[in-house]
Each structure stands twice: as C-alpha cells, then as structure tokens.
Amino acid sequence: MKENRVLSINTIMLRDQYVWNMNVFSNYSLYISPVTIDHEGFYQCVNGYEIATEHILVVQVPPRIVMSINGSEYNTSTQDKTLYVWTGKEVFVSCKASGAKPAANLTILINNKRLNPSQADTVILVRNIKENRTFDSVVDMKIRLPERIGNIICASSGQDGIPGQEVTVHYQNISFDLFLTLNGQQSDDVIYVDDKDEILAECYAEEIMLSIVKVAPKVRLMINGHDCKNGTLITSQHEVIGAICHAIGARPDVQLKWSVNDEFIEGTNNVYNRRGSNMTKDFITTLSIRPKENKGDITCHVKGHPAGNTYLRAEYRINGEQLYTL
C-alpha cells in the first residue's frame, strides 16, 4: 500500500476505478465503501516484507424476485393484486430469482401450502464473470388452482444472512353462465305467445364470480312509494297495492320472494337488475296485488343472505278514505 491506498488485490494491480473507494488504516484494517461483487477475494496486507494480516472477503447479493403467471409479471411492488382465472383451466407459473449470490432457494406455494417437488421443475443458471458471477434460479410449473379463491406465492428462503423474500398474488376462479330471454323474459319454463307474433330471442353470457367471500346486501322495501322498515304500517285508500323490494350489493346471488299474510306468492317478478361495485350484484322484485282483506302484512324474503335467510315486513290497512303512514 502507499499512503493508505490499496495498490493490488488478489496479486493483481488494481485499476484506478477500484482504488478510490478502498483505504487501509494504521491498524491494518481495510475500509471499502461501497462494496461491490468485484471486491470479493483474498486480501493480504504486507508491511515491508512481513504479512500483517490476511482476509477473505465473500460478497453476498440478495436476489430480485419476480413471478409471472400466464405471462403477466408480478414483483414485490406489484403484489397483493387479484388474478382472475377461468375455472378448470391450467395456469403457468414461473418463479424467478435473478442476480443472487449465493443461488436462491425458491419455493412455490398455493394457498400457503408448499408444492410437492414432483409438481415443479427447478433449473439453476450460472452467469459468467461478465455477469458479475451471480446466479439465476427458476421454478416453473403448471397447475389447476384447487380453490375458488386463494393465493400463489413465489418465495426465496433466507440463507447466510440474506433475508427471505416473497411475491404474493391472490387469485379468484371465474366462469360464465348462459341464459336465454324471449321477448325480454328470462325463464326456464315454456313461454306462450300468440300465433304469428314475432319473438325476440337474446342469449346472454353472465360472468359468475365463484367466491367464498360473501357480502351482505342492503335490503329495502317500498309499498305504494313509501320506504318501509320492519313494522311500518301503510294505510291506503287504494285497493291495489304496489310493492318493490331491493337487495343492493349482494355476493353471492340472493333470491327474493314475496308473501302476503304469511302466504307465499308464486310467479312474482324476480329480476336481476345490474352489477354493483366490488363484484356484487343488485336484485329487484316487484309485486302488485289486490288484497282479499282490508288489513294484513306484506313481506319480502331474502334467501341466500350471508347472515341467513332474512326478511323485511310491513303492515297495510285499506280504509278507502285517505293515505297516511305511521
């Protein structure tokens, strides 16, 4: 060394670009900042003709973890996104650690469970000296995702002081349901039309989210334009009562049914209205009746509610004189 500067490393005279960030102090300690993989090797401090100290420097490099699923890449900054997968279709998953030293030990987990080694093929590629002597590790696999929703994890285990890393992608299986409408009516039964009438037939492919994540809908009941809650009394001067029941923001689908005075009404109009936010659906059903009695109750039943079957009920009274609510 000369004036605290390192002149050679591994018996090779250093070029100027390596000298500027290396210093030797009077206690024979060597200071390097910043450290790169090019600094790896055998260090010997010689003072005159005596060897003062010797060291071997091993440089470790953490990997860059990337997971690709069906060609789309995810890393530690883009994880925790939801991947939608066709039900029953295989997905191609590639878990890669690049630029690591030592070579990263990779694992693919499905729903937090480690895959059987027979389900994956591991390949370790060694880079040459021009690529800084680091390693790339790759695990590839094809699999049908077993659950309706879950996660796929590409993980590198920690080793030799390098912390482990992982990339997580949440998945959800989807499929389509086909249904047919004739003249705007959806039915699995026979629809009768007049002879020689034109029929408008429409076929729909409705996306179904096969999800175990349930969302309770907000249920609303209206009778003759009045917003009702359980126990509301509607008094009407009209003999015909019109009722509307909404279930807003449901997942999975719910079924709406009517009952009048505890008797269920068959053949009521139960219509899927539109898709709501967060992959939920809104439903609406309507009812128009001429009550047999001057007082009673109308109930909207919500079947398939995440909290269990529920209902909204309102009492009615027909007095033939005035309309008011209590």
From TrEMBL:
Membrane-spanning ranges: none
Source organism of this protein record: Holothuria leucospilota (Black long sea cucumber)
PROSITE patterns reported in the protein's UniProt record: IG_LIKE
Family statement drawn from the similarity comment of this UniProt entry: Belongs to the CD200R family.
A GO term, aspect molecular function: signaling receptor activity
Bilayer topology: Single-pass membrane protein
A Gene Ontology term for the protein's cellular component: membrane
InterPro entries to which the protein is assigned, alphabetical: CD200R (IPR040012), Ig-like_dom (IPR007110), Ig-like_dom_sf (IPR036179), Ig-like_fold (IPR013783)
All copies of domain Ig-like, residue ranges: 217-319
The entry's keywords: Disulfide bond, Glycoprotein, Membrane, Transmembrane, Transmembrane helix
Main location: membrane
UniProt name for this protein: Ig-like domain-containing protein
